[in-house]
Amino acid sequence: MAMKIRLSRGGSNKRPFYRIVAADSRMPRDGRFIEKLGTYNPLLPKDSEDRVKMDIERVQHWIAQGAQPTDRIARMLEAAGVRDKAERNNPNKAKPGKKAQDRASERAARDAAAKEAAEAPAEEASAE
């Protein structure tokens, strides 16, 4: 059984509230879970103590049993000091698309040609 430590959404429209749960990865996001490990309220300020509440001992127990935390839960565990900070790298996310790269290269070529054209008459005038 593939276990995940993940968020399960509750609350009403535009008022999210999440439970941190240990669940089988095959179950739906808000569906059946095995154990509730804490809560997360994103509406509270980031420095509030009540924003994230976790039973760290139970989280560590589930991780020892082989449960994999999701990315968001892993970040919360890093902030709590339970896990080492993992280096994240997605170099392709910041790259512009192919069309934007083509437009930029065309613009650079056009600017270089305009600069050469502006310098050429100035040199001819100074030579006379």
Task: Briefly summarize what is shown.
By secondary structure, this protein is an alpha+beta fold.
Fold and architecture overview:
- By secondary structure, the protein is of the alpha+beta class.
- The chain contains three helices and five strands, in the order ββββαβαα.
- It has a five-stranded mixed beta sheet.
- It starts with a strand and ends with a helix.
- The model has no long low-confidence stretch (mean pLDDT 88).
**Rounded to an integer, what's the Rg over CA atoms?**
27 Å
Give the count of helical stretches. 3
Give the rounded overall mean pLDDT.
88
Question: Largest sheet, order of strands side by side?
Answer: 4-3-2-1-5
What structural class is derived from the secondary structure elements? alpha+beta
Give the helix level as a range of percent. 25-40%
Weakly predicted, low-confidence segments:
none
Shape: elongated
- How many strands, what sense, and barrel or not for the largest sheet? 5 strands, mixed
Short descriptors:
128 residues, alpha+beta, 5-stranded mixed sheet
Task: Set down the secondary structure blueprint.
Blueprint: E1 3-12, E2 15-24, E3 35-40, E4 52-54, H1 56-64, E5 68-69, H2 71-80, H3 98-127
